[in-house]
Amino acid sequence: MQRRIATTSVLLVCTTLVGIHAQPTTPPAPDQPSNGMLELSVKAAFDPEPPRRKDDAPSEPLWRGLIEITLKNISRGTVHIEEGGNYQISVLDSSGKPAPLTEYGKKVEAARRVQPNLSGVASIFDLQPGQQLTNQMHLGAAHQIEPGQAYTIRVSRSRGFPMVDPDGWPVMPPRRELRITLEIPAQTSAAK
User: Do the beta carbons of residue 5 and residue 128 sit within 8 Å?
Assistant: First the structure.
């Protein structure tokens, strides 16, 4: 099944995480957000807390575990992307330790250990030059996120990318993985 994207941005909402990392095994590789064909970016999405009383003003938005991951075609040609659970995400607290898993996160991690490849290709996208594909993920579903605390989010992806670039040249293994780190600073003005 092949689907062509007609808009400049596509938003997918993902609530399952196949790449939950409970323990970091090796020091992280340096960020590599671009391979000349695709560019990976990630940003935090903030939710404003609703006022507790009708007369209260809304408080400053707090990060509650929502991130947006974007892949953008920065090449001159069409890039074919396989989409479907291809991101590996680790969430570290301010001390550098993995954020504790929720009950749901523990179930996903246990299932991943039994059957490591839980995902398949959900769809194939043709990204035209300048187009982007955006996934929104709620890390709070799998990790115990404390609003207002500092976190380090590491996102990587190596599956679902083309083996050749739009010009027909092979994409060598170092360029097949994109990695980026997002720092969530502690917020001092939490809701009252």
Answer: yes
